[in-house]
Amino acid sequence: MSIIKLLDEFSSEKLTTKSSSRREMFNTLGSFGKKAAAAAVPFGLATSGKAKAATAAFFQENSAVDALQLALTLEYLEAEFYIKALESGVLTAGRAETVYMQISKHESAHVDFLRAGLEGAGATPVDSPTFDFTAGGAFDPFNDNGIGQETAYAQLLALAQAFEDTGVRAYKGQAGNLMGTAFLEPALQIHSVEARHASEIRRIRGLEGWITGSMRGDGMPEATQAVYDGEENVMQGGVNVTGLNFADPIVGDVTEAVTQAFDEPMSAETATAIASLFIVSDE
User: Fold this and answer.
1) Each residue's pLDDT tens digit, 146-183
2) What is the distance between the alpha carbons of residues 131 and 142, in angstroms, rounded to a whole number?
3) Is 127 a member of any domain?
4) C-alpha–C-alpha distance, residues 30 and 227, integer Å
5) Cα separation of 80 and 75, whole Å?
6) pTM score > 0.70 for this model?
7) If we measure between CA atoms, which residue out of 198, 190, 149, 146 comes closest to residue 172?
8) Is the pLDDT of residue 8 over 90?
9) Is 244 within a domain?
10) What is the crossing angle of helices 64-88 and 50-62, to 10°?
11) CA 165 from centroid of its chain's CA atoms
């Protein structure tokens, strides 16, 4: 079952209607997240003994399986994106191609691990959706429609940045749902690798490796703004960090430094809406 089928009000017509702006499309998609989380995937957790029974109960109560299914869908998206990018011929030999090859291996390993983990817990992993990396014709990252090598290359890097930055925040947002399960530690391990991917892609694009406020970065499409909304937060643990005493005189802009120093979690609703821009409905 594809995660897109959980969005029962979503249709391919809405995704591909060119009269709708990307912002309008995102606002429409944003309302579907709760429905996706509520629908879930059948748990059917096999149990033997008190420990496994307790784990199964915890999974159902805390939506750990939902979190892993969301993570798997995002990993499907990233894994297929990098495979197609490497097959497209848009990447020329050099650092970018080398990085994409290595990231592709990582994302495929993440997919295999999450599928195995879900199956081991007795849950049925969601199938990989059908992806449209043009988002209904808004992009042409593989130069399939002949927009030119340079423009396609720029889009290829921009989408990779958006996907990786989404993954970093989405894993952080789901950590609470994995508390008390065997999946928390490996999820955090994946999270840190996704952060390294994000930083590497940003540096290939000539940007700093970290995010400043809610700024998308040079050359990023407006449709990716949802990936960065909320990163301007300066309140951590109830404390306004900008009000603390920074002794180092070279810190510079305190607010910028604080937003760079903390990455914000992303809700399942937002992550689902972003991914759905690149998923073709099967209905």
Assistant:
1) 999 999 999 999 999 999 999 999 999 999 999 989 99
2) 13
3) yes
4) 12
5) 8
6) yes
7) 190
8) no
9) no
10) 70
11) 6
